[in-house]
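S.,

Sequence below, as promised.
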Amino acid sequence: MALECLDMSGTAGEEHANLYIRGVNEATSGAELDAQEVLDVLDVFGEDGVRMYLVGFLEGIEDRLEEEIEEYEMLEASVAYVVHESSVSILEESEDTLQLWIESAPKDLSTEIDLHIVDDEEVILQGGRIVAVEFKDAEETAETAPAIATVEKWKYELTEYEDPEDWPRD
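The prediction came back faster than expected:
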């Protein structure tokens, strides 16, 4: 169903704008859609008011999800070891794992942390979860040392559906 552009003149326009903003704010804060509240909006403001409230609520859900994704990406990046592609050499690669030579790895690098191999623009080229680290020729006083790291590659399966009717059903 295509959304119609409502006439937003005068008091009714302000009411609709306020209902839209109310819907955005409620959904962004994590509130659930309350059926009685929708019926109350219908009684007071009519169908157009309900439409504006629901459109705002949907926008708020989308905004909240985008914020959660951004927070997750920042958290994920903060707990990952990031290394430039020029500082690593791939020793062995299989479908599931990478074995890398890292020229200068911090001595506290351990397993169960993500590794991001990035380019000059800091775009992640390859990555995964470190499952083993073996330091080579490490000096006792040095904070970094050459290391061989084994990484379980990330596995992504991206499916894009053109038509919502093609979406998988639970």
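Residues 80-153 form one domain.

Coffee later?
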